[in-house]
Amino acid sequence: MDTKDLKNKLSTMLWVSFATGIFFFAFFTDNKSVSNLIISFLVSFMYSFVFIIGNYYTNCYLNSKYSWIDDTKTRIVLGILSTIFVNVVLVFVCNYLNLIVIQKNNPAKFFTGEMGLFNWIIVNIALLFSAIFHAKGFMEEWKKSSKKEVVEQKLIAKSANAQFETLKNQLDPHFLFNSLNVLSSLIDENPDQAQVFTASMSKIYRYILEQKDKELVSVEEELDFAKTYTALLKTRFEDSVTFEFNVNENDQKNFVVPLSLQLLLENCIKHNFATSSKPLHIKISSEDGFLMIENNLQFRENIKESSGIGLSNIVQRYALLTKRNVFIEKSEDYFKVKIPILIEKTSTKMNTTKYSENSAYERAAKRVNELKGFYGNLISYCLVIPFLIFVNLYTAPQYQWFWWPMLGWGIGLASHGIAVFGISKDWEERQIQKILERENHK
């Protein structure tokens, strides 16, 4: 028992002793003297001390052996039995000291007559207070358990969200640097195709900035983006790489993690060689609730060590969203990855729509994400465009193609800025409110 707990118990004993001492002195003591008042108080303190300490240690012992939460039934049964036994023994001990030792009554009549009735009354009073004492302990343990569970769930949710954000934030530099490597190779091989690649790259990167903050996107959206991405790959590899899309229309309405196809297609290109005589065949299809990406295995030798971002990123993001697994199949002839198609659009975030305070937090978080998206877009523009200008002026200064991506991406960046800082949701809400007010005044 710690110091604070001891003080609380002592304070309770004193108040109970004072109240019961005054009660018995006023109604059950014939000689109203100071000495009898002191005796009444001391006897009441004896009862309070014995019952409170006895029940406290009984409760502590049971709590150390059986949990109110994990062993509820056992704890209740043993609590009832031990409470009856302990309190009956304590009542008989205190009553014997009070009635026989202090008041000098006949021990032979301890269980009969008025003393027997007094024993029965005190036993019931002791059991009543003991039941209240144990119920209080049960409620305290339950509250502690509930608070602990809430805190644990919040920590789990925060940890999952933080982990998910970390995984998603890997995608920006990963795609950007890989795309720049492709562009660099393409400039040497075919400058004309480099122009087409650069113009389309700005549109694709804008899509990535928009989708990376989502936990799930529809299969249809992901397929549309994958088709655009494969068109860019075709500009570089021409007939060395073929793509086949065969996804069920019903599956296209369901969901996958964003940019999963792009990462898997990128892995196919990265880890396999492709030539006109030995083309790389990549097939995207759906079967039994999975989206499958399969390619014939033409493993590229002397490949640089993988960063591990692509496939592991997809596996970890799915692990945070669902219990369904990502499957990887490999044989001598082919390599296949199967990612789950999710029917419901689940979320790792906590549901806070019931509370206005949490709704305000969500709006603030959404606003921060919008600002992060815009500044990420702006920083990428400031990094990529100067690089493209340098590449263009260094390789083909007679034809300044860098204007096209600079203007195209610039227009997209400007519209993004207007959406974030200009015509926002607040402006829409104000306009809706004005229209409603005008309608109400008509």
Order of strands, widest sheet = 2-4-5-7-6
Which stretches are low in confidence, meaning pLDDT under 50 for 5 or more residues running?
347-357
Mean pLDDT across the residues is 75
Helix content: 55-70%
Largest sheet, if any? Answer: 5 strands, mixed
Count of helices? 12
Measured between the Cα atoms of the first and last residue, the distance is 73 Å
| SSE sequence, one letter per element | HHHHHHEHEEHEEHEEHHH
Shape: elongated
| Topology, number of strands | 7
Beta content comes to: 5-15%
| Helix and strand composition category | alpha+beta
Radius of gyration: 39 Å
GO cellular component, one term: membrane
Organism: Halpernia humi
Keywords: Kinase, Membrane, Transferase, Transmembrane, Transmembrane helix
GO molecular function, one term: phosphorelay sensor kinase activity
Gist of the model:
One of its GO terms (cellular component) is membrane. This protein has 12 helices and 7 strands. It is α+β, with helices and mostly antiparallel strands and 442 residues long.
Structural description of this entry:
With 442 residues, the protein is an alpha+beta fold. Among the domains are: 3-159, no CATH class; 214-346, Histidine kinase-like ATPase, C-terminal domain (Heat Shock Protein 90, 2-Layer Sandwich), CATH 3.30.565. 69% of the residues lie in helices and 8% in strands. A five-stranded mixed sheet has the order 2-4-5-7-6, with helices on one face. Helix 10 runs antiparallel to helix 11 (403-422). The longest helix has 57 residues, at 113-169. It is elongated and about 120 Å long. It starts with a helix and ends with a helix.
